[in-house]
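Sharing a chain and its predicted structure for anyone who wants a worked example. Both blocks are below, sequence first, C-alpha cells second.
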Amino acid sequence: MNKEYATDYTVPELLASFLSHDLEDGEEMIVGAGTPIARAAVLLAHITRAPNMKLLLAYSVTNLINVPVMAAFDTEIDYRQANWAEAYFVDEDLVMQIKRWATRRRMFVGALQIDKYGNSNLIGIGDDCRHLRVRGAGAVGSPTPSSSAKCYYLLVNSHSKRIFVEKCDFISSFGWGDGGLDQRKKLGLVGGGPKYVLTPLCIMDFEEKTKRMRLKSLHGGATVTDVTNNTGFELIVPEEVPQTAPPTKKEIELLRTRIDTAGLLRSI
C-alpha cells in the first residue's frame, strides 16, 4: 500500500515523525513532560508500530496503545500521568541500570552548544563557570544517561553559529570527543553515543569513521547554504542531500487528534 504523505505540517511535526521511525518495539522510553517533540515521537511510534514499548512517565510504567486521547502533562509530578500508570519503576543498582540503558533505552538531549563531534553543553556559555554570560538548564539528568544509553538524539529549537560551535565552553553530554570510533571506548562509556542532530533546518548524523557531523537531509524549503552559513564549523556535505521525508497523513491525524491535542507542535 502506497503511503499518502501530508502537505500541511510543521517542522516539529516533521521531526516527531522522523524520530518515531527510528524507535523500536520492546524498548523502554522515558516520556518527558517538557520535551514536546520527543514526547510526540515516542507516543507516535508506540501507537503505530511499537505496541510493546514500555513507556516510563514520571516513575510509572504504562502502555497507551488503547488510550484514545493522550492528555498533555506539564511536569514530572503532574497528577494526570497517574491516570495511565500500571506500575511504578525503580532502577536497579548503578551497574544494572547502566546495562539496561545500554541495551534497551534511548534518550533525547537539548543543548546550548554542540561541536562537530556531537559533544554538547547544557551548563552555560562563558569562560568562567562562576560568571557565565548565559546560564543553561544544567547537566543534571544528562551526563550519565547519555554516556550509557543505547544511543541518543540532540534536539535544538534553532540553527545558528551560536549553537553549532567549533568548541563547546563546557561538555555536559560527551559525544565523540575529538573524533574517531575509539573516543568513547577509551573513557569506558558503554553507550552508543549521539546518532542524529535535529534542527529547524535539517537532520545531521555522524560520518562512520571520523564521527564528524554530516548533513543527512534538508527540511522542505531549506538549502545547503542555509545550513552551512549558520554552522560555526565545517560540516561534511554529501554531493546529494535528500529532503527529509514528510509525515504521512495518518501520522498527522494521530498527532493532532490523539497525541498533541493542545497543538504544541504547531506553536513552537
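Comments welcome. The radius of gyration is 18 Å.
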